[in-house]
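INFO batch 0412 | record 1 of 1 | parsing
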Amino acid sequence: MRIVFDTNVVLDVLLEREPHVVPAAGLFALVDNGLVGGAICATTATTIYYIAAKSFGTKRAREEVRALLELFEVAPVDRLVLDSALDVGFSDYEDAVIHEAARAIGADAIVTRDRADFASAVIPALHPHEMLAVISAA
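INFO prediction complete | emitting tokens
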């Protein structure tokens, strides 16, 4: 299974946001152990750097992004992804970009805490708890 992680799930781990960190970290561990293919959108990396630099400084921001790039595949954001995100019918463009990047790499699902933002998605968008349940049932 190939999963694209929404930025909010990555931030749950980075910022250790309770109570969300436990299921998000569990999914990270599955990727790290090779049991699940994980990807982040290219825009997630830049957002994470920005937030980490403000929260922890640029040195740690670089370390965090480097760790993400070692763990996850990167779903590229190119002209086709950006154009199709404009037309997919999402109210939030950032979520539309993540969705279209996920489609471009053939992802099976998107893991997010904001499922409502992905209501018109053609790829299943699951909460981290739901994703863990799907993976354990497989």
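INFO post-check: The CA atoms of residues 49 and 61 lie 5 Å apart.
INFO record closed
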